[in-house]
Specification:
heterodimer; A: mainly alpha; Ferritin; 66% helix; B: 114 residues; alpha+beta; 2 helices; 18% strand; flat
Chain lengths: 253, 114
Amino acid sequence: MSERPAYLLEYLLRIADTSLVLAQRLGEWIGHAPAIEEDLGFANTALDLLGQARLLLAYAAEVEGRGRSADDLAFLREESAYRNATLAELPNGDFGDTIVRQFLIDAYQLALYERLTDSSDLRLAEIAAKAVNETRYHVRYSSGWVVRLGDGTDESHDRVQASLERFWPYVQELFEADDIDRAALADGTAPPAQDLCDAWSRRVDAVLAEATLLRPAASPFRWYGKHGRHSEHLGHLLANLQYLQRTHPGATW
Amino acid sequence: MPQSGAEPRWPHETATLSMSQARDWPLYEVFIRARGGLDHKHVGSVHAADARMAIEHARDLYTRRQEGVSIWVARSTDILASDPAESAALFDPARDKIYRHPTFYDIPKEVETL
């Protein structure tokens, strides 16, 4: 195997874990969505995200080179070893909360995957090429709901605006470059964080305008899920996600 | 959706109440084209608040195993059905006109989809 740069494992885990954790959150809706059609909509999106996470974690496991599998990384890593953006782990709240969180992340992933299809890392470019079409649909789906709720009744408008305010402080993390991002940028693996932020902002602003929602002010607060420092919510999510493998190590079916 | 107190007009409106029906989303009929060159076939129905949502629900429910390349949806209430009571008048007259079936031709082997 060719020599892999040191930052790559961390960089892959950030993308993979964001998809994995969000898939787990969406899965919590199954059997609880307001309509059977939406139940399936969330489940389909969750499965897309889980598929992306599997491909990325399998690659990450190879890069790590310690003989671990994608499953090992998903089921046996501690909370502080998870590198997902904090936004993905926040609780579902009501249907509108879930839609807003989903839309903010969908728009981010679309901006990211669109650019990663040109990555100098060919394996990553291939994964992005598969993910980008899935993600285009995710954006279509969640943005449709943001408009429907934002431009719906007074109550739906006010509630979805409140969701937006609640999630907004967690958005900054997605676009704040650190040493890992800069190393990935330097060798052409990753696009500049500012480009992602610009593409994301254009898409989000257009949908918010159509939804008659106001873009919240930037928040001074910072979250660093991508450094392994998470909110109180991730531990509970992982307890569910990892329960079976922790209780019956090596169980398969 | 049946008007309150009115008799249901179409058979599917008597189906079991789903979660979404309870929320008064209208019903859309879904037609899927399985692949290029084939016609759209009715596959079922979805509840949705608007046409865009109906397309998305149809995509999520009826094409998740690669069943289609194109989707049509139409409001169920926009579809008119023939009256079962008139079926004798409408359909029986065709019964004894077998000469209308193109079975008196030799079909060339090259034509596969007749």
